[in-house]
Design the sequence.
């Protein structure tokens, strides 16, 4: 098979941006070409560096010299085949177009080989490291992330701002938190004006309760039971661990690099993760047990926690199309109630009652009354 030896290209002398069209000849020891009426130039292969032309469709760019190099640009990449055939060992450092299809195969093979490794890392490796990674994340970062998540919820929903309701619920929170010494978080409770029966704990101490859940409670002790459960999710860093597991490498890289802003960039995904995914059975049991212990330490009757969870379980069974959402992330079971009853029976039952200026039924509906006023005002506009 005859190999083409003559090729057309452009020459840049390193002093001017104006290219010179030159005929190039492929020789056994190098390339030769004539620039206009000047003498023939000879480039030994050992002095030539290929800087472009390794991919299909690219022009071939060859450079020679240090600093501002002389350059040859050849539009036809087949000159590389001619260089290899004619130059032999002298030209082996040039890219060989014939190996491109092999590179594709090797890339595919490497990807296929890496898939089970990557799958194993994300299926077993990252979840098993979620605990240690979460422990290494500073509280300050967790608090910023929780604040971002809270804003994601409150920016899209109306917030209950009734002063009387807020003050009374804050008094429940204050009593509940009193036994906790050296609190790492400044807990903040937000009530979302929505009929959804739901509550959640964002990292950093940000608790969110929806109006529907508040109105479903029959006593302040029932609300205190829900809050105790959510407070323990925060203290045990269950939400942060869940986020680490499902945002995995993104959060890990941000945590290890000390990039708090990098973590915050995943705030929306973190909010969606907390809303859509459920805690493990172990995490739920921990929040139940520690929440019950917190209620007892605060002299709040834990029967409110157990009765409310049991009631919501019945409501969920009876009203599948209702806006009930609490147990999409907090699954109720008979075993949980029985287990809590066993734990509660070990403690004395001398509990204090909450005292408010109004009865609980009136207080729990103050948020909806504000909503009705707003709706009436809008209708009059």
Sequence:
């Amino acid at each position: 098979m005859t190999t083409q030896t003559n090729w057309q290209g452009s020459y840049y002398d390193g002093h001017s941006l104006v290219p010179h069209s030159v005929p190039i000849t492929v020789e056994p020891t190098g390339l030769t070409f004539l620039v206009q009426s000047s003498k023939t130039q000879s480039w030994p292969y050992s002095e030539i560096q290929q800087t472009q032309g390794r991919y299909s469709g690219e022009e071939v760019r060859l450079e020679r010299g240090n600093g501002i190099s002389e350059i040859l640009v050849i539009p036809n990449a087949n000159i590389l085949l001619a260089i290899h055939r004619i130059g032999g060992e002298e030209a082996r450092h040039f890219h060989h177009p014939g190996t491109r299809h092999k590179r594709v195969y090797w890339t595919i093979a490497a990807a296929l080989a890496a898939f089970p490794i990557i799958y194993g890392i994300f299926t077993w490796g990252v979840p098993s490291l979620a605990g240690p990674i979460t422990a290494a994340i500073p509280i300050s970062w967790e608090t910023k992330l929780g604040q971002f998540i809270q804003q994601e919820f409150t920016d899209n929903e109306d917030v209950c701002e009734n002063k009387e309701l807020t003050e009374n619920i804050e008094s429940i929170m204050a009593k509940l938190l009193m036994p906790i010494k050296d609190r790492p978080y400044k807990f903040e409770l937000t009530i979302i004006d929505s009929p959804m029966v739901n509550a959640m704990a964002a990292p950093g101490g940000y608790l969110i309760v929806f109006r529907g859940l508040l109105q479903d409670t029959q006593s302040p002790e029932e609300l205190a039971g829900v809050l105790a459960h959510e407070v323990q999710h925060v203290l045990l860093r269950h939400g942060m661990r869940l986020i680490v597991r499902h945002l995995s490498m993104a959060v890990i890289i941000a945590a290890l690099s000390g990039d708090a802003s990098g973590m915050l960039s995943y705030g929306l995904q973190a909010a969606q993760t907390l809303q859509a995914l459920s805690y493990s059975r172990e995490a739920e049991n921990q929040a139940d047990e520690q929440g019950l212990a917190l209620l007892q330490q605060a002299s709040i009757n834990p029967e409110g926690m157990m009765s409310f969870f049991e009631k919501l379980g019945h409501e969920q069974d009876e009203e599948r199309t209702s806006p009930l959402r609490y147990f999409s992330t907090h699954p109720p079971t008979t075993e949980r109630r029985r287990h809590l009853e066993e734990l509660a029976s070990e403690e004395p039952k001398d509990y204090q009652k909450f005292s408010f200026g109004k009865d609980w039924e009136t207080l729990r509906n103050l948020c909806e009354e504000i909503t009705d006023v707003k709706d009436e005002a809008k209708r009059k506009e």
Notes: Residues 117-125 have pLDDT under 50 and may be disordered. Residues 137-380 form one domain.
